[in-house]
Amino acid sequence: MSYPYQLKNFEEYQQAWQHSVTDPEGFWADVADHFYWRRKWDKVLEWNFKEPDVKWFTGAKLNITENCLDRHLGTLGNQPAIIWEPNDPEERHRILTYRELYNKVCQFANVLKNNGVKKGDRVCIYMGMIPELAIAVLACARVGAIHSVVFGGFSAQSIADRIQDAQASLVITCDGAFRGGKDIPLKSVIDDALMACPSVKKVIVCTRTRTPVSMLKGRDVWWEDEIKQVETMGNPPAPAEEMDAEDTLFILYTSGSTGKPKGVVHTCGGYMVYANYTFINTFQYKPRQVYFCTADIGWITGHSYIVYGPLSAGATTVLFEGIPTYPDAGRFWDIVDKFRVNVLYTAPTAIRSLMGFGLGPVNHKDLSSLTTLGTVGEPINEEAWHWYKDQIGKGKAPITDTWWQTETGGIMIAPLAGITKEKPGYATLPLPGIQPILVDENGNEIEGNGVNGNLCIKFPWPGMLRTTYGDHERCRTTYFATYENLYFTGDGCLRDEDGYYRITGRVDDVLNVSGHRIGTAEVENAINMHAGVVESAVVGYPHDIKGQGIYAFVITEKKHHDLELTKKDIIQTVSRIIGPIAKPDKIQFVSGLPKTRSGKIMRRILRKIAEGELDNLGDTSTLLDPAVVEEIKQGRL
Ligand code: PRX
């Protein structure tokens, strides 16, 4: 496998970026030419950001799994595709070559077909990080089913919401999942979720933890039994379904500033080209290197940079079941040492947490194989950046701080490792093909350097979302209506004197807790479900390890109750409704919330209080009840 579109130096980067602006269609056609299409496109791009209506490679036919698997068999059949490292270091790791992965995906594609799955059906996947998760994802893509992977940390209620929204007909899960010292009973969570999901006709359960599970007759089947059945059929071939470039590949739910999470829709052709192109260029991946992304496949990072990007590039991708601190805080470094990892892609929150354990867990681990380091998901503070650079990369490996979103499908702004300049805390420059602009509140472009504004993108790119599932209007209003003819990211951004971009964080009511995106409205809705709660307001505050913590201001009914117990109950409620990732870090009971005369909560004031900026609250005289601010200040946690 060679990558003719891998940029090799700064001049090539500059030329490519120029080319992508003056002739975007030509630029992307050149990249797309290096994939396997059953039929090539009639037109590279048709678009408007008004409706929005964006189509890439119209008329083209393909199946992404033929690009991730079939086309590598001749040259890379015996190369490791996936190296799987289990949660428990005592358990044996597994290596799946491209041929083995291909065979397993074909087998499971036949399992899906035997269970009635057809092109266009929605399949919900709720599994731990085992190879079968990647196999399930790829098998869906092979038969043309739309996968919706739900992160294993979400609650039954969250799963039910996602299944109902997508009207999924089949669920793939495990008996349980190992994560650190915990054994998470996935199947039992699914059983709870499915009480409210009549669309689901079948559940396929893969064995992992051997936790006892209840199997519902006629609905639930074992993964292993279904595979045996395919084997007794003589392992028939599993031809890949021919997909239109604009057919949906997957839905991935993500939080916004209002209401329930929305299903971001990505399509087959554009997403494939973009995930692959960004993988190869950002990490400067070289054939036969070992690449390790520590994300979970339940998030977009796992979709694009554990599964589709690396596999479409014929790379060797490490899949790790566990957590960075189990059995101790040296686990990532053990994995790097064990498999001679060359490229490591992780989150600032993990780096900050591991930094806290000092150098003990790093010392005596051989990290000399590392050539490239990456981060994603949230701003990285300079201290963590330097620790990563010096202690992990030993000062030699370039760091690529990659800015992107579930909606963008792939990396948008980032240094090309070792090719373009890095700058601590900065995502630096846009990839060729990406045209960022900063705008002020009225949508006027802010030109020049040394400026701050809201980050927008003014031209389409192949990996961008096409819609939000079942509600196109929501897609339009969320991303394309704030500023005319622009995609609005929701992020604030600085462009420094050199023209380098630094993401300063969300400007909407979305929190980023340990790199997980959580809507404040979602957490408030969950808190408000608790019987004793009258009203609540949630804001973020700076947290040393998580980046942002969740601070909840809560009004309860005036009863004599044990406030500590109520706190615990509220946390339990949030955990049950959303999942443990959304648990508030601080809960302050208040008698009122600062509101405008029209009844709108003044989050700006609450945010300042949570951040401890008590002297700088701005004008509070227009509030309905200015006295309440004083009370909240006094009670600050
Ligand atoms: O605020 C930005 C932050 O994460 C948001 C996207 O979250 P999500 O869709 O969950 O995707 C995360 C993984 C791609 C963005 O709007 N974010 C992501 N990467 C960075 C970042 N903030 C600063 N620097 C980054 N490198």
Automatic annotation (TrEMBL):
<dbReference type="InterPro" id="IPR020845">
    <property type="entry name" value="AMP-binding_CS"/>
</dbReference>
<dbReference type="Pfam" id="PF00501">
    <property type="entry name" value="AMP-binding"/>
</dbReference>
<keyword id="KW-0007">Acetylation</keyword>
<dbReference type="InterPro" id="IPR000873">
    <property type="entry name" value="AMP-dep_synth/lig_dom"/>
</dbReference>
<dbReference type="InterPro" id="IPR032387">
    <property type="entry name" value="ACAS_N"/>
</dbReference>
<comment type="similarity">
    <text>Belongs to the ATP-dependent AMP-binding enzyme family.</text>
</comment>
<dbReference type="GO" id="GO:0005524">
    <property type="term" value="F:ATP binding"/>
</dbReference>
<dbReference type="InterPro" id="IPR042099">
    <property type="entry name" value="ANL_N_sf"/>
</dbReference>
<keyword id="KW-0547">Nucleotide-binding</keyword>
<dbReference type="InterPro" id="IPR025110">
    <property type="entry name" value="AMP-bd_C"/>
</dbReference>
<dbReference type="Pfam" id="PF13193">
    <property type="entry name" value="AMP-binding_C"/>
</dbReference>
<feature type="domain" description="AMP-dependent synthetase/ligase">
    <location>
        <begin position="75"/>
        <end position="460"/>
    </location>
</feature>
<protein>
    <recommendedName>
        <fullName>Acetate--CoA ligase</fullName>
        <ecNumber>6.2.1.1</ecNumber>
    </recommendedName>
</protein>
<dbReference type="GO" id="GO:0003987">
    <property type="term" value="F:acetate-CoA ligase activity"/>
</dbReference>
<keyword id="KW-0067">ATP-binding</keyword>
<dbReference type="GO" id="GO:0016208">
    <property type="term" value="F:AMP binding"/>
</dbReference>
<keyword id="KW-0436">Ligase</keyword>
<dbReference type="GO" id="GO:0019427">
    <property type="term" value="P:acetyl-CoA biosynthetic process from acetate"/>
</dbReference>
<dbReference type="Pfam" id="PF16177">
    <property type="entry name" value="ACAS_N"/>
</dbReference>
<feature type="domain" description="AMP-binding enzyme C-terminal">
    <location>
        <begin position="522"/>
        <end position="600"/>
    </location>
</feature>
<feature type="domain" description="Acetyl-coenzyme A synthetase N-terminal">
    <location>
        <begin position="13"/>
        <end position="68"/>
    </location>
</feature>
<dbReference type="InterPro" id="IPR011904">
    <property type="entry name" value="Ac_CoA_lig"/>
</dbReference>
<dbReference type="InterPro" id="IPR045851">
    <property type="entry name" value="AMP-bd_C_sf"/>
</dbReference>
